[in-house]
Amino acid sequence: MSTDTKQQHTQGEWFLSQNTPARMIYVQNEDKVITSISYKDEFANCNKEEAEANAKLIAAAPELLEALKEALKEMRLIDNIYPDRVVLRISQAEAAIKKATE
Description:
By secondary structure, the chain is of the alpha+beta class. The protein has one domain (15-101). 49% of the residues lie in helices and 16% in strands. The chain is built from 2 helices and 3 strands, in the order E-E-E-H-H. The chain has helices spanning 48-78, 83-101, and strands at 15-19, 24-28, 33-38. Helix 1 crosses helix 2. The longest helix is centred in the middle third of the chain and has 31 residues, at 48-78. 9% of the residues are buried.
């Protein structure tokens, strides 16, 4: 599996912003809102803390994806030294990258 897949997600640094009266947390970059998470309304079944934790995870996704791709490259370099320990982790990393990019 190649980890050099073309990025199709919104580019740029992702960060959080909030609209307290609307009970919304936004994940956005400098140009636009990427997604929003609602808390404590008739549609949301989570509190503000859980919504913030979910938003932080979403905002970190591009960096996590890049870190995983780089770690996968390093694991492939040592695969022949520690094959039993690395093969499972390579499979897991490939599956996570596939889930995020396909």
